[in-house]
C-alpha cells in the first residue's frame, strides 16, 4: 500500500485529491496538510511514501517543506504545479522534488504519478521533465561547476545519468540499455549518491548541463 500525505492550502482541492487517491486500491491517504509546516510534521510522524505538495502555500511554502522532507529522507515529494516555469518550480527542483504533476491532471494521471514516484521513477511525463530541465539550465547566468562526483561514475552509471537527462523512467532506461529494472534502480541510487543529490530530477539537470558544456 502506498501511503500519501496531501498538502494544499485550498481545502476543496485537497479534499478532491484525497478522494481521488483514496479510491485507488493500492493508495492510502494517511494525512492532509494546509501548509508546508504541517506537511513536514506529518511526514515526520506518519512516514508516508509520497507527499503530494502544492508549492505555493502561505507560511512555510512547499519549497521549504520539500527541502526539509527530502534532506531528511522522509518521503518522495511529488509537486503540484500550474506549469508556469518560474522561480517556484526552479526552487522545487533545487529542493529535491522527485516529480511534477500539473494541477489539470486527470484522476488516472494523478494515481499513475503517485505510483511512479513511489516506485522510484521521478516523473510522470518525460516531456515535462525535459521542458523544466531545459528552462532551468537556460536560466543560469553562468555554467555551474561540474559536480565532483561525476568523475567517480562508472561508464554504465554515466549512461544511466544520460538517460535521466533525457527524462526516461526506469523501465525506459532498462529498455535502452538492455538491463533489468532492478539493476537500473541500483545504478540510479549509486548515481544519486555519487553526485550528492537527493532526486533523479536533480541528476537530470546535471546531465543536461554536462551535455551542454
TrEMBL record:
Domain of life: Bacteria
Residues modified as 4-aspartylphosphate: 54
Keyword Cytoplasm (UniProt): no
Alphabetized UniProt keyword annotations: DNA-binding, Phosphoprotein, Transcription, Transcription regulation
Ranges where the Response regulatory domain occurs: 3-118
Name this polypeptide is given: Response regulator
Source species of the chain: Rhodococcus daqingensis
UniProt key word Transcription: yes
SMART domains reported for this sequence: HTH_LUXR (SM00421), REC (SM00448)
Pfam entry (one): GerE
InterPro entries associated with the record: CheY-like_superfamily, NreC/VraR/RcsB-like_REC, Sig_transdc_resp-reg_C-effctor, Sig_transdc_resp-reg_receiver, Tscrpt_reg_LuxR_C, WalR-like
Domain HTH luxR-type: 146-211
Amino acid at each position: 500500500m502506498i501511503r500519501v500525505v496531501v498538502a494544499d492550502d485550498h481545502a476543496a482541492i485537497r479534499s478532491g485529491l484525497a478522494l481521488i487517491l483514496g479510491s485507488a486500491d493500492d493508495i492510502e491517504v494517511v494525512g492532509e496538510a494546509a501548509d508546508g509546516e504541517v506537511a513536514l510534521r506529518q511526514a515526520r510522524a506518519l512516514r508516508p511514501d509520497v507527499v503530494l505538495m502544492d508549492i505555493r502555500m502561505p507560511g512555510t511554502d512547499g519549497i521549504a517543506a520539500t527541502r526539509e522532507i527530502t534532506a531528511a529522507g522522509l518521503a518522495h515529494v511529488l509537486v503540484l504545479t500550474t506549469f508556469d516555469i518560474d522561480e517556484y518550480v526552479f526552487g522545487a527542483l533545487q529542493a529535491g522534488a522527485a516529480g511534477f504533476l500539473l494541477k489539470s491532471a486527470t484522476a488516472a494521471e494523478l494515481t499513475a504519478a503517485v505510483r511512479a514516484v513511489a516506485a522510484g521513477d521521478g516523473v510522470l511525463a518525460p516531456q515535462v521533465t525535459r521542458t523544466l530541465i531545459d528552462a532551468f539550465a537556460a536560466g543560469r547566468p553562468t555554467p555551474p561547476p561540474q559536480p565532483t562526483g561525476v568523475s567517480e561514475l562508472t561508464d554504465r552509471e554515466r549512461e544511466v545519468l544520460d538517460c535521466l537527462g533525457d527524462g526516461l523512467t526506469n523501465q525506459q532506461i532498462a529498455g535502452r540499455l538492455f538491463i533489468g529494472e532492478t539493476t537500473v534502480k541500483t545504478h540510479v541510487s549509486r548515481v544519486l549518491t555519487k553526485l550528492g543529490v537527493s532526486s533523479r530530477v536533480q541528476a537530470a539537470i546535471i546531465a543536461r548541463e554536462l551535455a551542454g558544456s
